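Morning!

As promised:
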Amino acid sequence: MPTLLGKRFECEVCGTEVLCTKPGGGTVHCCGKEMRLKEPKPLPSAD
Amino acid sequence: MNLMELLEIPASLFPEREILRFQGRGVTYGELQERVAKTAGALRTLGVQTGDRLAILQTNTPAVVELLYAAASLGVVFVPLNFRASREELSSMLARVEPTVVLVGDRYRSTAAELRASTLGAPVFITLDSTTGPGIAGGPQRAEMPSLGILVDQAEPAARADIDDNSLAAVLFTSGTTAGPKGVMLAHAGLTSFVLESAELCDGADRGAVLVAAPLHHVAGLTAVLAATFAGRRIVLMEQFEAEGWLRLVATEGITHVFLVPTMLKRVLDHPTFAETDLSGLQVLSYGAAPMPLAVIRRAIAALPRSVHLISAFGQTETASTVAVLGPEDHRLEGTPDDVQRHLRRLASIGRPIPDVELRILDDDGTSLPPGKVGEIAIRADRLMRGYYQQDEATQETLRDGWLRTRDLAWVDEDGYIYLAGRKGDLIIHGGENIAPAEVETVLESHPAVEEAGVFGIPDEEWGERVAAVVVPRPGAEIHPDALIDFCRQRLAGFKRPEVVFVADPSSDGLPRNTLGKLLRGELRARYAT
């Protein structure tokens, strides 16, 4: 999955998280695997 | 992650974007970041070191937001004090946290003078508003009280300190309903985890505007600012809530998101300008911090534009904000009569747990209870408080095996909706039967003549405790205690019905509540049980 501004990615192996602050066409990998997109669950009360 | 990064990251992406607005003036991310760096520099010149505490006594102003991020940047603990607290309470809070510096708004200068005279450890007191530092006129110590504004203007920006994510970011004093205030310790990791789990980083898209009327010393105000900073939702700060100004800001500042405590919502609905105010831009109105009276939320559903999503948000300072939500779909009183009845019933609930928390209902032995049984709400989540500041005993009572015991009693229905049943210490024990005051209050408040009700136990030789109630009549209504007791007998188990009903003077200010609208049952008991 290409990296998109503001998206978070999580390594399913070691738990590392990456926040994309400059988008590009590549994909992010950790522990030899493509990192999984982590979607926030909006809480209207909080934001 | 440091709280400061919630500002740094979007500011590096969109420095020209307006993020904070106060009294008609806006500042961009870039301007805010620069001001925060200089504020951090000014704090360094005052001798503030990483790990120190920084206390603030001020209403919602941009300076408080700057101090929040400046403190985070330096690894200093942000301690916003409740500006409605009594001098004795403030004094005990300061004695507990021993701040290096106390920053006070102009309106609290005389309070500061008294606090300075009585505070041990001699923190530096700095004024937040004045551009000059004339000292404290008439104070017991006439020494100069310098102005932060002048220090910031003269300061060099300070770089962000490298601190551990588990370091304390803030100590928030809780508004206790029974004991005195306790300082809830919240770490950078917990607060940033809450923001990342619930908000998406600013990507340049329009995210609307949030009106922050909850004070920044309250977890709802604090987390609203943190999440909106990260998400790029324009923050419109309201110095102190009052209904007319709130309605005007919503209409004129393009406000899309608001949070209100129940007493605030009632004042908004009651205000003469409510009907003529354009609220069409409002998308989300969330409420919480105290139980919402059914009558008030029903009025809100009927009176607000249909496009407004109403959301009940239940949480505690100790859980770094929301843990359960009753969503907009449960606020729609539409559909078949069964649907309407189901939604009406659910309006009395606090909804269901949100994804990043685990919630259980426990009995006194710590065993999970099945649906329908009343027990204590316990929460497990990454963002739980680290404990109460220098109150190890209270911490050990509250945080057990990784679970936070909330002291809130509740039961869960078959669909997973949670219903509050009062506070643990408020439970009335009548002949061995446990009675949750909130359950009796709900029945009393469903009577057409009752505006509000408070229920508590009075000592009784035979039964241990008897159920007593204080009711405030609706304007023009008359209440006959015997008839009201009969009304309860038809709707509650016999042992739960009040045996004594006091009718309060309808011209009084209503029942005693703390600043967030939570009923002070201890005060009711003291006033009526003797």
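Chain B touches chain A through 37 residues (CB under 8 Å).

Hope this helps with the figure draft.
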